[in-house]
Amino acid sequence: MHHLNNEVVFIEIMGGKIFNGSLIDSSDEIFVIHVNNQFVYLPTDHIYTLERDIDNENNIQSPSEIPQFITKVNQDLTLFNILSMAKGLHVELMVTRNEALHGVITSVMDDYFVFQSPIYNTMYIPNKHLKWIIPHIKNDLPYGISETEFLSLSKNKLPTFKKQFAEQIAELKGQLVILNLGKDFSHIGKINHVEGRLIEMKDGKSNTIYCNLSHIQIVNPV
User: Fold this and answer.
1) Which of 29, 111, 162, 177 has a beta carbon 3.0–4.6 Å from 168's, enabling a disulfide?
2) Residue 76 to residue 63: CA distance in whole angstroms
3) Percentage of the chain surpassing pLDDT 70?
4) How far apart are CA 83 and CA 219, in angstroms?
5) How far apart are CA 175 and CA 120, in angstroms?
6) C-alpha angle with apex 12: 8 to 15, nearest 5 degrees?
7) Which of these, 78, 77, 83, lies nearest to 95 by C-alpha position?
8) Distance of CA 101 to CAs 69, 97, 119, 151, 171, Å?
9) pTM for this one?
10) What are residue 208's DSSP bridge partners?
11) Hey, which bits of 27-156 come out as E strands?
């Protein structure tokens, strides 16, 4: 898709969100588009359609600056590399359908990453559910917090993490968690057991429920 670099395009994300901007770079895993003075990194697994904006009615121009996350010589444009370069910086993530997350990536593992949010604290997010990531300029901090408060997010004392998402969630046995931001009552409870792709939990009424690990977008230990 490199022949489309610097073209003005429409990119539709699964779920109906459309980005209209200048395509900066692309690979099998990531598309980088410049939209409204921001560089947006889009994992290809969530891209539904891409087409040239031939009319360019919004008069979109190629940016004069370079992306904050750029690959080095002989380095592939991969999701792992982008997440690694984003560590310690204020980023905006979209994981669930309607709510953007603001905070800092603190660890990048094999198939998930650890995100520290001023609102939700520690969050485990599988790579496959990340819809986009937007880096923000250094002084543009979320929720009006100070730089000291923001830097403290990445300095929280965190445990050693397992390499795989399923293994990490199994470590939470006996703990209270919120799954997928608690948008469904059955996504809040205590983990009893993890076996295969199923998580056994007790909800607020101590009923046993089972959640499919494949469909868990975010795990937030309480």
Assistant:
1) 162
2) 22
3) 94
4) 18
5) 16
6) 160
7) 83
8) 19, 11, 9, 17, 24
9) 0.92
10) 202
11) 30-35, 38-43, 47-52, 90-94, 100-108, 112-117, 121-126, 132-135
Task: Evaluate whether 102 touches 89 at the Cβ level (below 8 Å).
Answer: no
Cβ neighbours of residue 222 closer than 8 Å, sequence gap 6 or more: 175, 176, 177, 178
Q: Which helix (H) or strand (E) holds 148?
A: helix 147-154
Structure tokens, 94: 């979209």
Pair 166, 186: CB distance under 8 Å: no
Higher pLDDT, 200 or 139: 200
**121 residue type, one letter:** N
Q: Decide if 29 contacts 79 (C-beta within 8 A).
A: yes
pLDDT in tens, 129-170: 999 999 987 678 889 888 888 888 877 666 789 999 999 999
Q: Please, which residues bridge with residue 191 across strands?
A: 201
Q: Nearest Cα to 19, choosing from 43, 50, 45?
A: 50
**Number of neighbours of residue 25 by Cβ within 10 angstroms:** 19
* 209 strand-pairing partners: 201
Tokens at residue 93, please?
């993530």
